[in-house]
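thought: fold this chain, then report.
action: predict
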Amino acid sequence: VTVETIIGLLWSTGMRIGEVLRVDTPDLDPATGVLTVWLAKFGKSRLVPLAPSTIAALDRYRRQLPSDLTTSAMFIGPDRRRVGYGRFNVTFSELLDSTGITAAAGRRPRAHDLRHSFAVRTLLGWYRDGVDVQAMLPRLSTYLGHVEPASTYWYFSAAPELMALAAQRLEQDGADRAGADR
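observation:
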């Protein structure tokens, strides 16, 4: 249940695996739906708003934890201590093996790939919904804990479908401007 909850949090928030593994129970405020990420990459902290379904999943997980824990760690292993990066990666690899998920293009999926999937899903959703992606990109950048929006741009080049939607939007904007100039 711990690994399932960690994977769910990675999928639903796009957080870095190290950020998730460092979460302490007081970092989650279920009343406001916000998770505080302390001293992440580059020493930055940030607030991560969570969907109600994510809060509910974390609450179900927390209710399953032993009441006599002496650690504030949110995610604990069978030894009742914080799940570490190395142990999680071994378990993640075992999970991939048990489900038959193999390497694609010579590389096995990694937990960090869930972060990439989150960013691409968000951008694709914005394009499909007709949102001004340029205006929203700084928000996604802040949410992901990037130093600046330029650090978020690489997600565009990593997803062909996203590149196609961006090109389509660019062509439409150019056609709209040409029509307005007449």
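thought: worth noting. The helical segments are 2-13, 17-21, 52-64, 85-99, 113-128, 133-144, 154-157, 160-181.
final: tokens above.
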